[in-house]
Amino acid sequence: MRITYAKAIYDDKERQAVLDVFDSGWFSGGKFTQEFEEKLAKWWGVKYAVSVNSGSSANFIATQALKMEGEVITPALGFPTTVSGLVYHNLTPVFVDSDENLLIDLDQVEKAISPLTTGIVFAHTLGNVCDMDRLMRIIRDNNLKLLEDCCDAVSSKWLDRKVGTFGDLATVSFYPAHHLTTFGEGGAILTNDLKLYRECVSIRDWGRDCYCKAGQDNACGHRFSHPPFDHKYYYTRLGMNLKMTEAQAAFGIVQLDRLDGFVQKRKENYKYLSSRVKNVVKSIKGADVSWFALPIIAESEKEPIMAHLEGSGIQTRSIFAGNLTRHPAFYKVGRSLDLSTTDKIMSNGFFVGVHPDLTKDELDYMVSKLNEV
Ligand SMILES: Cc1ncc(COP(=O)(O)O)c(C=O)c1O
Questions:
Q1: 81 C-alpha vs ligand 1 centroid, how far in Å?
Q2: Ligand 1 neighbourhood includes 353 CB (under 6 angstroms)
Q3: In terms of C-beta density within 10 A (0-12 exposed, 13-18 middle, 19 or more buried), how is residue 53 classed?
Q4: Measured between alpha carbons, how far is 245 from 247 in angstroms, rounded to an integer?
Q5: Given the DSSP bridges, would you call strands 294-297 and 169-173 parallel, antiparallel or unpaired?
Q6: Which of 180, 175, 199, 211 is nearest to 29 (CA)?
Q7: Phi, psi (5° rounding) for residue 117?
Q8: Per the residue annotation, which of 124, 178, 231, 355 is the catalytic one?
Q9: Cis omega before residue 93 (within 30°)?
Q10: What is d(CA 165, CA 136) in angstroms, rounded to the nearest whole number?
Q11: Could you give the CA distance from residue 226 to residue 207 in angstroms, rounded to a whole number?
Q12: Residue 205 forms beta bridges with which residues?
């Protein structure tokens, strides 16, 4: 038996969608991408979605688009590309701790605020949701910008409101381990703000000023009003090319139809496992979590436990980087508050899967093996 921590689920519908792109003869930035963006925005309940080629690209673009300065508060626990965009854009990350439920430590956030602080960038780690009322009070009281990394938290909610609708911008990943996939890689940025939407599109599309959609060539009506410039090739920001392909978007359109079912199953699997296993990470009152995985903070170091589970055919993962500041890429980056809980999570924390394809037999097997260790 091999029980993976994640699994992409798809069938002939996704296959046909990709073949439709093949037959269309147009492979990037076309009608499928536009439909995917509109459908994703509608599903999430936001005005705009910008499709990109990964969650990391989404974080990079969103960080640039927010035009923050000085210091930005971020948890040390997590995934590197939530934070690396800050460094690329000359911001100083101020690393704060997380609690044993992987939630950003809001007491420390308050302590970390200085006259230089302009924003908070954080991930809803493995889908779990902190007290968003308190976080938003901190944001408002201190006039900060907020970027929510929702790569692990598609459909997680705080008091019935989806995460990703609280911040100025939110990001998502469609890598196959996540809640839905766009044919392997992919991501998106979400917002209700037209200016930020256009900023993100521009950074994604080489930094150009033009905002024509697929099939349009002169939406602003001023394409040739400023010779010698052609507005389609007029650059007002530094950009990259971080676009999604049509095949990815077509695959994603079908996945969006399956998404509510995926979320339901993930929640059921988490509930089944968490009610039978000790030391699992829990949600707090007010949060309705769409779990990425079943996180466990063991009473002792994680390595022998993970090795035993792997030896029993159960795939395990560490809680991403653990404490980012302990990794060479981040040694000299920013400043930190006390990160002792993050360190404990790094040494004792790991996760196993709750993906929608797990069978009852597999769940029972996981329970018995987890209880053995
Ligand atoms: C919280 C978080 N942010 C960002 C990413 C990066 O997403 P991607 O792999 O699509 O670049 C991940 C990936 O797993 C993640 O878990």
A1: 7
A2: no
A3: buried
A4: 5
A5: unpaired
A6: 211
A7: -75, 130
A8: 178
A9: no
A10: 11
A11: 18
A12: 241
Q: 316: which 2 tokens? A: 């395990």
Q: What is the pLDDT of residues 231-282, one digit of tens each?
A: 999 999 999 999 999 999 999 999 999 999 999 999 999 999 999 999 999 9
Cα 235 from chain centre: 28
Instruction: Indicate which residue's Cα is closest to atom 7 of ligand 1.
Output: 55
- Strands 349-352 and 294-297, how do they pair? antiparallel
- Please tell me the total number of residues recorded for the chain in this structure: 373
Please list the helix, strand and coil fractions of the chain in percent, rounded to the nearest 5, in that order: 40, 20, 40
Order the strands of the 157-158 sheet from edge to edge: 161-162, 157-158, 287-288
pLDDT, position 266: 98
CB-CB contact of 150 with 171 (8 Å)? yes
List of domains in the chain: 12-205+241-372 (3.40.640.10)
Distance (angstroms) between ligand 1 centre and the Cα of 299 equals 27
Helix (H, G, I), strand (E, B) or coil at 308: helix
The yes-or-no answer on residue 178 being catalytic is yes
Half-sphere exposure of 79 (CA within 13 A, CB side): 19
Which residues, including other chains, have CB under 8 Å from residue 339's CB and lie 6 or more apart? 76, 95, 96, 97, 323, 325
Distance between CA atoms of residues 93 and 83, nearest Å: 7
> If the chain, 373 residues long, is cut into consecutive pieces of 10 residues, what is the mean pLDDT of each piece?
96 98 96 98 98 98 98 98 98 98 98 98 98 98 99 98 98 98 98 98 97 91 96 97 98 98 98 98 98 98 98 98 98 97 98 98 98 95
pLDDT for residue 215:
85
Q: What is the pLDDT of residue 1?
A: 82
